[in-house]
User: Which sequence fits this backbone?
């Protein structure tokens, strides 16, 4: 674990090897958190779109009238996120999804989804931290 | 006995389930609860694609008048049967469109007819039908947002409704970070 302190490199990750690995539940066209695959699957105009926890920055939720809104923010280059920006990118010149917003009349479920995503992110950060400590 | 039927098929993004029939004269979808019918005459059918979507597999049919019809809900096992029906009845090949499941949030946007496709390593991750875009905004030099008209009429069957997507688009600006432009 030496020599990688300077100029962090991008580590390859992927959610699924193929379509057969998608959870069956995606056919309900609802946001699905797949903890095993460390992935959030978003319904986008009929597609089931997996997004790995490594791409996720955070999630926010607010209630407005009859609906609850959920917004997922993603890691993109050039974001000043408070701490020093040390997220490496495979291709910083690509087009990135920066955020996606959904609404639902079911505020309880979006509460739950929001908590699951935050939990997923926490676990991933913790693992990352442990790896760093091992490397030291 | 030349008609083959597939059950539990959806038309486009609608929540209503229906039956899909293939015969030498053409193909048609009929809603089970509604009276809705989508018919495609054999002479109008130009091409067909097969791709994995949320509601299992989609059959996408291209028509002579450039209309595109999409039917979701086919099973993996339906592929071979459907492919041979399309070949025998209409003389067309069912092409498989590769879909990305990598889980990456970066790629390339590509205008394909009336859709904006987000491609990850030459595979489609999703498509945004531009006719559903209610508003678009350019926020700052590198951010584009697209707002959508909700499709549902208050029905829960449609699942979660995407209201907005924002892209980070580097545009023509040269990246200072990589310095690898040649």
Assistant:
């Amino acid at each position: 674990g030496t020599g990688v302190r300077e100029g962090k490199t991008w580590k390859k990750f992927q959610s699924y090897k193929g379509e057969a690995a998608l959870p069956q539940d995606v056919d309900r066209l609802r946001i699905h958190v797949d903890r095993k695959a460390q992935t959030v699957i978003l319904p986008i105009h009929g597609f089931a779109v997996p997004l790995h926890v490594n791409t996720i920055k955070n999630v926010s939720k607010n209630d407005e009238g009859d609906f609850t809104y959920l917004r997922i923010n993603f890691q993109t280059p050039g974001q000043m996120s408070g701490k020093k920006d040390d997220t490496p990118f495979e291709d910083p010149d690509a087009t990135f999804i920066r955020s996606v917003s959904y609404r639902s009349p079911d505020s309880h479920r979006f509460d739950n989804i929001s908590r699951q995503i935050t939990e997923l992110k926490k676990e991933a950060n913790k693992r990352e931290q442990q790896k760093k400590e091992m490397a030291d | 006995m030349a008609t083959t039927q597939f059950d539990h098929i959806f038309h486009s993004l609608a929540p209503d389930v229906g039956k899909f029939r293939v015969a030498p004269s053409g193909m048609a979808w009929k809603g089970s609860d509604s009276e809705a019918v989508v018919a495609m005459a054999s002479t109008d059918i130009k091409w067909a694609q097969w791709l994995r979507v949320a509601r299992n597999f989609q059959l996408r049919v291209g028509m002579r008048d450039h209309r595109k019809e999409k039917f979701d809900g086919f099973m993996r096992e339906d592929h071979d049967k459907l492919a041979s029906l399309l070949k025998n009845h209409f003389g067309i090949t069912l092409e498989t469109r590769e879909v990305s499941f990598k889980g990456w949030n970066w790629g390339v946007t590509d205008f394909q007819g009336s859709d904006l496709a987000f491609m990850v390593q030459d595979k489609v991750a999703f498509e945004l039908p531009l006719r559903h875009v209610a508003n678009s905004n350019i926020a700052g030099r590198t951010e584009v947002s697209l707002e959508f008209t909700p499709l549902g009429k208050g029905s829960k069957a449609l699942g979660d409704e995407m209201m907005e997507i924002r892209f980070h688009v580097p545009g023509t600006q040269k990246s200072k970070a990589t310095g690898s432009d040649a």
Notes: The first helix of chain B runs from residue 78 to 90. Residues 108-168 of chain B form a domain with the PH-domain like fold (CATH 2.30.29.220).
